[in-house]
Amino acid sequence: MTLSKDDLVKLERRALKTGFWGNAFLAITGGTAAFLSRSDALLVDALYSLVNVGAALAATRIGARVGGPATRKRPWGHDFDEVLYVTFRSLILIGILIFALILAGTKIVTFFTGGAVPELAFGPIEIYAVLLVAVCAALAVNYRIALRRSENRSAILKAETRTALIDGALSLGTGLVLLSLPHLKGTPLAPYTPIGDAVLVIVLVSIIIWSPLKAFRTTLADLAAVSAPSKTVAAVGRAARALSAERGYKYQRSAVLQAGRMHFAAIYIDPLKPVLATDVDTFRDTLTARLEDVIGPTRVEVMLTAQSGPLPRGQTA
After folding, report:
1. C-alpha span between 41 and 175 (Å, rounded)
2. pTM value?
3. What residue ranges do the domains of the chain occupy?
4. What class is the 230-304 domain?
5. Which pLDDT band holds residue 243 (cuts at 50, 70, 90)?
6. Cβ(2)–Cβ(144) under 8 Å?
7. Rounded average pLDDT over 252-260
8. In this predicted structure, what is the pLDDT of residue 3?
9. Which residues contact 160 (CB under 8 A, 6 or more apart)?
10. Whole-number pLDDT of residue 310
11. Rounded to whole angstroms, how far apart are CA atoms 214 and 181?
12. CATH-assigned architecture of domain 5-223
């Protein structure tokens, strides 16, 4: 059974509230551990969690507005707010990862040019690594369960699930490598122990940065009004064609966009007979209800036209 908008908002709010407190805990403990251990890798983790705290607050407000009625100021509603959120969320994550690369690179350059690089204190790292992995795993499960209950409709929960998994992977790798550094004593790599966490940061960022880059590219396509996936467009076309046949109309074509959980479908039909405005409204409402069960929430607009395809080049409507 498809969740109502109110149920979806409540589901998101509960998951994001849990995420808020979890990330607030990680930001505070991470900042403390980074200060005590003098580790750049832990500082990056703390900054990552701090961004997640602000993101959880913003996502709660945005999720409540998505799918709401249009206003004079927002004639198409607030549906694109979700896409904007994921876009800027991805940009912030990319920025943090680039900052981590610069920080790590500076430390390595300082080391090889004879500058002083403080040695790591491993006690705080052990405690924080265990806490961090446990909390990130719990948050990922929290978001994943909520996402499944939302029938994978929430782009916000998808973004938060991805972020929690990235943070958990980053934390697990960071903890394991940092805790292994003391065992390099007596080996040829022992002199490089002070920059071990910097090298680790570069390796992890090189692996992880592709996920927010992919999310950014996807949402950028949504904002650029790129057509929805072909599977979605085909589903809309089948539903519109079937309803047109039932009403004795000629289905011409459809154009479909996607913005997070919301879809926008423009349906072009030729009634082939005189119709009232109420007939068009009924067609729109019926198709909207059918598409809700097929692809999820959809805003449908019906266009009456005798043209069977896109406008010729250079021609204006």
Report:
1. 9
2. 0.67
3. 5-223, 230-304
4. alpha beta
5. very high
6. no
7. 87
8. 62
9. 15, 16, 19, 52, 55, 56, 59, 139, 143
10. 62
11. 33
12. Up-down Bundle (1.20)
Q: Tokens standing for 245?
A: 């046949």
pLDDT band at 165 (very low <50, low <70, confident <90, very high): confident
What's the token pair of residue 225? 């009004």
| Rounded Cα–Cα distance for residues 167 and 257 (Å) | 31
- Please report which confidence band the pLDDT of residue 316 belongs to, taking 50, 70 and 90 as the band edges: very low
| Whether pLDDT at 150 is above 50 | yes
pLDDT > 80? residue 129: no
Answer whether 59's CB lies under 8 Å from 160's CB.
yes
The DSSP result for 138-183, as a single string, is: HHHHHHHHHHHHTTT--HHHHHHHHHHHHHHHHHHHHHHHHHHGGG
φ, ψ (nearest 5 deg) of residue 252: -100, -60
Residue type, 200: L
Q: CA triplet 23, 24, 25: central angle to 5 degrees?
A: 90
